[in-house]
Amino acid sequence: MRFRLTPRETSFYDMFAASADNIVTGSKLLMELLGADTAGRAEIAERMRAAEHAGDDATHAIFHQLNSSFITPFDREDIYSLASSLDDIMDFMEEAVDLVVLYNVEDLPKGVEQQIEVLARAAELTAEAMPNLRTMENLTEYWIEVNRLENQADQIHRKLLAHLFNGKYDAIEVLKLKQIVDVLEEAADAFEHVANTVETIAVKES
């Protein structure tokens, strides 16, 4: 195995940016899901599955690069954590779409669109932030805003749960819908994990 003895292995930055851009693609598919009929949702699920596979490929590429690089731009454990958290976001978004299709959900409860809007905004911010890892500049506002969005997502999630348990849904429907909104909440948590990892990296590099 040939080691690269350059001062910094810059390809990691490009791979993180590509992974984040793919998450934006996933968030847009979530937005499409809101206005789609049953047939449209099945087609969106196929595209989301392809995006999730692309995310897996991006994550594996980062891990491969990590294992074959002698010098890395920042701590190895932080590279691993950042790549894993980005991958988690895509996994949760894909799972949410898949559950909507598998459960034949006709109407998503009011409030899910707010969850998805928060995820879409977090995706945009994350994609904008990844290229800044090269210089470690202009990142503070990113992690502050993503943490604020995660708090907003928590509030939306609690309101959704209260709505689901208000007695208007039968028990089976509650179980289906709760699983979907819970997975969307996990996606919001994963965005926060990414932001927290970026903050940790920036502090170490300062």
From TrEMBL:
Source superkingdom: Bacteria
Alphabetized InterPro entries for the sequence: PhoU-like_sf, Put_Phosphate_transp_reg, UPF0111_domain
UniProt feature coiled coil, ranges: none
Annotated family: Belongs to the UPF0111 family.
Name of this protein: Phosphate transport regulator
